UniProtKB/TrEMBL annotation:
<dbReference type="InterPro" id="IPR014538">
    <property type="entry name" value="UCP028063_topo_Znf"/>
</dbReference>
<dbReference type="Pfam" id="PF10881">
    <property type="entry name" value="DUF2726"/>
</dbReference>
<feature type="domain" description="DUF2726">
    <location>
        <begin position="38"/>
        <end position="157"/>
    </location>
</feature>
<protein>
    <submittedName>
        <fullName>Queuosine biosynthesis protein QueD</fullName>
    </submittedName>
</protein>
<dbReference type="InterPro" id="IPR024402">
    <property type="entry name" value="DUF2726"/>
</dbReference>
Length: 220
């Protein structure tokens, strides 16, 4: 009698496990996914390349970092904590430079894509400034100009990361985002003059005057 009871129990458990797994598989079949593409657009990628170059071995650059992974609310009760957490739950930092050994955030960077200010963008900036100020995280505002003049970007970072030092100018191609190299004209009316040219030549023929100077931001 006991053996019959054991067999029944085993069959019931087996049926339950199989049914549970089958139902889970059926649920998953209703959900299919596809890649959305690159995480960053062309402007964001160009700036990311410039930022990685500016930081060098002195930091790790992360992008699209959820605020809730970097900061946490400081609240006296659960209600206030819940409200404060909701404010940052769906927001993120454009770029975060972290310590290369511990990945502790050192600097947060907000990338200005040049689009006109609207209510949502203004509210985002207010939140970013408040979060960074209260958490003691330096916040740097950057534009697409910094993608082409890495020296300026390095100077901004050097104010917060001691090991980073400004050095010679480094630029990235405005057309494709690739590093640019310095060459000297060997013929023509500009013979002997230095100029920047895209490292992907002949695939990209963008060139730039060596002495071109972008307008300095008033914030600097």
């Amino acid at each position: 009698m006991e053996s019959v009871f054991i067999v029944v129990v085993v069959l019931v458990v087996f049926f339950f496990v199989v049914q549970k797994r089958f139902l889970k598989q059926e649920e998953l079949k209703d959900s299919e996914y596809k890649k959305k593409g690159a995480l960053l657009n062309m402007q964001e990628s160009a700036f990311y390349n410039a930022l990685v170059t500016a930081v060098g071995e002195h930091g790790v650059v992360l992008t699209k970092v959820s605020m809730s992974n970097v900061v946490a609310p400081v609240a006296t009760n659960k209600k206030h904590w819940f409200i404060a957490n909701n404010r940052i739950a769906k927001s993120y930092f454009d770029y975060v430079v972290c310590d290369p050994r511990t990945l502790e955030p050192r600097v947060a960077i907000e990338f200005d894509n040049g689009k006109q200010l609207d209510k949502g963008k203004i509210e985002r900036h207010k939140l970013l400034m408040h979060v960074c100020k209260s958490a003691g995280i330096p916040l740097i505002g950057a534009t697409i100009k910094h993608s082409y003049q890495v020296g300026r970007l390095r100077r901004l970072l050097a104010a917060h990361i001691d090991l980073i030092e400004p050095d010679k100018e480094v630029r990235f191609c405005k057309r494709c985002g690739s590093p640019m190299v310095i060459k000297t004209a060997s013929s023509g009316e500009h013979k002997g003059r230095r100029f920047f040219t895209c490292s992907r030549q002949p695939h990209c023929t963008y060139t730039e005057n060596y002495n071109v100077v972008f307008e300095e931001d008033s914030s600097e």
